């Protein structure tokens, strides 16, 4: 039945347009990440310079700064705007920004102007991401929400697998600049797909914005109260936090661990590992949308995170590329439920007029955790090596898995909830 629901969703014009837009733009985003890492690798002699770990940490900080500065406040505005227009405008702006990065680096041969453009690029994300999460439950029926989120996750997985392999090869053979140019084209194609959505917004407050600063801050606070008061939201955020914290360590320590273990440093190895991660996540997402519907959500999330911690520990302990590939596949398989189920839990736990604020607050919290863990990872890697930093990340993910299972003990209703058909 789940397979039939998925096919039905992809035959719906609005959801199909959103899905294809995400598939194309996420493909470009994977190229962007690899291209930026490739730029820093070129700038630091393949991360052999002593300051390379801090440059990777700085890149993470610049990527996250717009969310930390703006996300707590943009959700109240996103809730008032036409979500389709927000998505289209964001992708159009992102196309122009990524085109400018190779030009600026060629002129200056410095990373500061590049970081400035990365800041602008991720400022667009501050509006795009909550709008995408908020529009999904408005264009699909509630009974199809889990299937819709699973399909959107599949779009990200397919894009990650293809983009990682393509991006790693393109960067090593043709340069990171071409990868960014390809990314610009994917954003333009996404704009064309999103323009096909026929969307009638739910009734929002007046378009001229909140009535004064007190009214604005009151609306912002409503989003935070939803995060604080809903067990569903708490469970989803716990699982998602583990993924983002592990990602902070992998961004700094993982990249260096891979490059230092390689006989010939380059981006192709990273691309292969991201592809393996995507394949594991794809298998897990299929399970979540079929047989996994019958499993209690806290148990799925908690057990998955604990197993992911074991795969991270194996990754940290080895220098063999085959182990890296196997570990990446397992990490993808075990953490994929955190993305699918947390999205659904937050959508179910928030009212339509609050979703922009809830997802903006989520983005703020997750990026803050990523920033903190990337900074800690840079310190641990510099002082104790990549292995210690990666083992620390495994411990954090395992603890989060235990906390996710604890949510089920605190609220038995969550253990009884299953995915909808």
UniProtKB/TrEMBL annotation:
Where exactly are the transmembrane stretches of this chain? 17-41, 53-74, 111-129, 150-171, 177-197, 233-250, 270-288, 300-317, 323-343, 364-382, 388-410
Tell me where it resides.
Cell membrane
Q: Name one GO cellular component term.
A: plasma membrane
Where's it mainly located?
A: membrane
Q: Name one GO molecular function term.
A: transmembrane transporter activity
Q: Which UniProt keywords apply?
A: Cell membrane, Membrane, Transmembrane, Transmembrane helix, Transport
Q: Does the keyword Transport apply?
A: yes
Q: What is this protein called?
A: MFS transporter
Q: Which organism is it from?
A: Eiseniibacteriota bacterium
């Amino acid at each position: 039945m789940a397979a039939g629901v998925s096919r039905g969703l992809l035959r719906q014009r609005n959801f199909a347009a959103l899905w294809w837009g995400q598939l194309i733009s996420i493909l470009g985003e994977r190229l962007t990440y690899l291209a930026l890492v490739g730029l820093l690798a070129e700038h630091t002699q393949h991360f052999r310079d002593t300051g390379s770990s801090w440059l990777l940490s700085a890149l993470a900080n610049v990527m996250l700064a717009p969310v930390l500065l703006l996300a707590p406040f943009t959700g109240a505005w996103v809730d008032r705007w036409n979500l389709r227009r927000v998505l289209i405008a964001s992708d159009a702006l992102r196309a122009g920004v990524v085109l400018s990065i190779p030009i600026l680096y060629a002129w200056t041969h410095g990373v500061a102007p590049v970081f400035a453009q990365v800041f602008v690029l991720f400022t667009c994300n501050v509006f795009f991401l909550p709008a995408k999460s908020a529009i999904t439950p408005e264009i699909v029926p509630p009974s199809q929400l889990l299937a819709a989120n699973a399909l959107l996750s599949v779009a990200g997985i397919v894009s990650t697998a293809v983009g990682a392999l393509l991006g790693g090869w393109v960067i090593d053979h043709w340069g990171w600049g071409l990868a960014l140019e390809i990314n610009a084209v994917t954003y333009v194609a996404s704009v064309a797909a999103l323009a096909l959505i026929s969307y009638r917004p739910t009734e929002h407050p007046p378009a001229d914005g909140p009535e004064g600063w007190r009214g604005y801050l009151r609306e912002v606070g409503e989003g935070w109260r939803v995060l604080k008061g809903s067990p569903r939201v708490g469970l989803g955020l716990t699982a998602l936090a583990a993924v983002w914290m592990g990602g902070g360590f992998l961004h700094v320590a993982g990249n260096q661990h891979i490059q230092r273990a390689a006989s010939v440093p380059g981006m192709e190895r990273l691309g292969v590992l991201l592809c393996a991660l995507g394949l594991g996540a794809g298998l897990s997402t299929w399970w979540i949308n079929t047989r996994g519907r019958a499993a209690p959500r806290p148990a799925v999330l908690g057990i998955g995170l604990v197993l992911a911690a074991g795969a991270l520990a194996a990754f940290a302990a080895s220098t063999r590329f085959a182990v890296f590939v196997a570990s990446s596949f397992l990490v993808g398989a075990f953490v994929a439920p955190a993305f699918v189920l947390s999205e659904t839990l937050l959508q179910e736990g928030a009212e339509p007029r609050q979703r922009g604020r809830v997802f903006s607050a989520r983005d703020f919290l997750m990026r803050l955790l990523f920033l903190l863990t990337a900074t800690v990872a840079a310190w641990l890697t510099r002082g104790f090596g990549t292995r210690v930093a990666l083992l620390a990340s495994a411990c954090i993910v395992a603890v989060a898995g235990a906390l996710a299972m604890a949510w089920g003990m605190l609220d038995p209703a969550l253990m009884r909830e299953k995915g909808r058909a």
